[in-house]
């Protein structure tokens, strides 16, 4: 039996092949890939068509050696429980990978080593190894040590969460107060006059902003704000004679607690009690009735973070302030009915 001779390996398409097919110089092909604004539109279209037709793929390793760029963004992922993952951050990571990929960059996940309390060592390791061009940080606090350390090292970074005084304002955040103010207006438009706001007793600035935004708007609208019990017992809140007809929660899991307390007290969500949440996690759509919730614009957030990071990498002028984005109120049956008559 004759053994067939192996086929010769197909030669990879080169930049010279593209230049010959398009009738341009290799420099024009390079400009098409790296500085398309320098290329005449007709030439740009011709070169792009040749790249697509020949299946040319730039040699990123050679480009990295030439320019010093790795085209890789480090994402310092928050510590999470794999058996109970944070659905919000999983969605954010998906959006971040897409936003980075649209700009020709990869995302490298970073995390402190087991037993490490701080992320400095993880940041130092990738900076020393020149593995990333810059960093994306999430859940950033005004005095965040990760942002401060990145600033000291001089590595570009962008933060999901506001950096404080003395740190570069390379941040993107949600206008949390405006979001919960919209929830208060929504409940008022449905005829609710007695409302409450429940959530975690925490100094986290975004949660405090949500509470303050709801309280201020409720007061402006002339609503009666029923205080949540200090011990967090929602059944006490719902069985009082002057109980609220609507309750806003600072996250969807807190809204789930309201659902459970209401059912224990014989109240029907959407008919006897309106409820709103925050984050619009998959939980919101699967509750019965489905939960009205404020949806974070994860893809615009990710795109804004990548844009702010690449602005630094390209040496362009950086904005003097961070950017705020708005959450969207997704109305569902948990708050769509008018309150019962007193």
Any key phrases for this structure?
transcription; elongated; alpha/beta; six-stranded mixed β-sheet; LacI family DNA-binding transcriptional regulator; 434 Repressor (Amino-terminal Domain); Lambda_DNA-bd_dom_sf
Report on this model:
The protein folds into 3 domains: 15-58, lambda repressor-like DNA-binding domains (434 Repressor (Amino-terminal Domain)), CATH 1.10.260.40; 72-174 and 298-325, 3-Layer(aba) Sandwich (Rossmann fold); 176-296 and 329-335, Response regulator (Rossmann fold), CATH 3.40.50.2300. Strands 2-1-3-4-5-11 form a 6-stranded parallel β-sheet, sandwiched between helices. Strands 7-6-8-9-10-12 form a 6-stranded mixed β-sheet, with helices on both faces. Helix 1 (15-22) crosses helix 2 and helix 8 runs parallel beside helix 9 (205-220). With 342 residues, the protein is α/β, with parallel strands linked by helices. Helix 5 links the parallel strand 1 (72-76) and strand 2 (106-110). It is built from 13 helices and 12 strands. The chain starts with 14 loop residues before the first helix and ends in a 12-residue tail after the last strand. Keywords: DNA-binding, Transcription, Transcription regulation. This is LacI family DNA-binding transcriptional regulator.
């Amino acid at each position: 039996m004759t053994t067939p001779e192996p086929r010769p390996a197909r030669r990879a398409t080169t930049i010279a092949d593209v230049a010959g097919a398009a009738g341009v110089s290799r420099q024009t092909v390079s400009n098409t890939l790296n500085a398309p604004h320098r290329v005449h539109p007709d030439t740009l279209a011709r070169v792009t068509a040749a790249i697509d037709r020949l299946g040319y793929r730039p040699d990123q390793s050679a480009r990295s050696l030439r320019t010093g760029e790795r085209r890789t963004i480090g994402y310092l992922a928050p510590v999470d429980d794999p058996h109970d993952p944070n659905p919000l951050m999983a969605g954010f990571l998906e959006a971040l990978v897409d936003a980075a990929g649209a700009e020709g960059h990869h995302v490298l996940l970073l995390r402190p080593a087991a037993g490490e309390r701080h992320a400095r060592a993880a940041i130092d390791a990738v900076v020393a190894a020149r593995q990333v061009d810059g960093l994306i940080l999430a859940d950033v606090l005004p005095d965040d040590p990760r942002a401060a350390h990145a600033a000291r090292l001089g590595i570009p970074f962008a933060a999901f969460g506001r950096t404080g005084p003395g740190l570069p304002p390379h941040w993107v955040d949600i206008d949390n107060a405006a979001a919960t103010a919209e929830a208060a207006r929504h409940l008022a438009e449905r005829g609710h006059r007695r409302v409450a706001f429940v959530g975690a007793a925490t100094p986290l600035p975004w949660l405090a902003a949500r509470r303050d935004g709801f309280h201020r708007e409720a007061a402006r609208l002339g609503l009666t704000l029923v205080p949540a019990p200090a011990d967090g017992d929602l059944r006490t809140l719902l069985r009082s004679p002057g109980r609220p007809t609507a309750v806003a929660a600072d996250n969807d899991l807190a809204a789930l607690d309201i659902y459970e307390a209401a059912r224990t007290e014989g109240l029907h969500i959407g008919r006897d009690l309106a409820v709103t949440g925050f984050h619009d996690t998959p939980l919101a759509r699967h509750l019965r009735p489905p939960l009205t919730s404020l949806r974070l614009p994860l893809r615009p957030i990710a795109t804004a973070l990548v844009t702010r990071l690449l602005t630094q990498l390209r040496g362009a002028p950086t904005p003097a302030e961070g950017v705020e984005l708005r959450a969207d109120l997704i109305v569902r049956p948990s708050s769509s009915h008018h309150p019962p008559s007193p």
